[in-house]
Amino acid sequence: MTGLTPPEGATEPVRHPDAPAPGEPLGAHYDQCFGCGDQSRGLGLSARAGEGVSVTADFTVGAGHQGAPGLAHGGVLAAALDETLGSLNWLQRVIAVTGRLETDFVRPVPVGTELHLEARVTAVHGRKIYCSAAGRIGSPDGPLALRAQALFIEVRVDHFIENGRAEEIDAALADPDQVKLARAFEVNP
């Protein structure tokens, strides 16, 4: 199993010079994405560029996100963290996939809660990108509800072309909007 502690020789993350400015919305990387896309049963997560190599995001827990009555499903909360962590790739201008995600659930999150998420890249070692994230209830300074450490692995676009369903890959590749095309393949678990 791959550890989540950066090895000796790992470097500080570098924000790409063309990355969106702090506070700027990142938008959906792919309109069919469960996390940030335009999906009726998705998360509807909206991320913004932060300082350095960090992002913030907001997610409101809806009735369709329940596990136990009145509480968010842990898998949905983990997906929200994963989506937020994946948004970091846009700040580095790399294509990367989730290699490992370790989540700690600190307190229950009720339906109707606005969850404030923050993620940052902590180190880079070759193709490995080490990240951390936290989710707080009600405000960026609210009670800690969950946290995660993650390892993303940089891949080439071939990863998606060789493994994705052909009709979605072909449609994404045919999009004349080059920024939208590049973002479609920036992150995928």
From TrEMBL:
This is Acyl-coenzyme A thioesterase THEM4. Residues 1-26 are annotated as: Disordered. One of its GO terms (molecular function) is hydrolase activity. It catalyses: (5Z,8Z,11Z,14Z)-eicosatetraenoyl-CoA + H2O = (5Z,8Z,11Z,14Z)-eicosatetraenoate + CoA + H(+); hexadecanoyl-CoA + H2O = hexadecanoate + CoA + H(+); (9Z)-octadecenoyl-CoA + H2O = (9Z)-octadecenoate + CoA + H(+); octanoyl-CoA + H2O = octanoate + CoA + H(+). It comes from Streptomyces malaysiensis subsp. samsunensis. One of its GO terms (biological process) is fatty acid metabolic process. Pfam families: 4HBT. The keyword Phosphoprotein does not apply. Belongs to the THEM4/THEM5 thioesterase family. It is a peripheral membrane protein. Residues 70-133 form the Thioesterase domain. InterPro entries: HotDog_dom_sf, THEM4/THEM5_acyl-CoA_thioest, Thioestr_dom. The keyword Cell membrane applies. Keywords: Apoptosis, Cell membrane, Cell projection, Cytoplasm, Fatty acid metabolism, Hydrolase, Lipid metabolism, Membrane, Transit peptide. It is found in: Cell projection, Ruffle membrane; Cytoplasm; Membrane. It comes from the Bacteria. One of its GO terms (cellular component) is membrane. It is an enzyme of class 3 (hydrolase). Its EC number is 3.1.2.2.
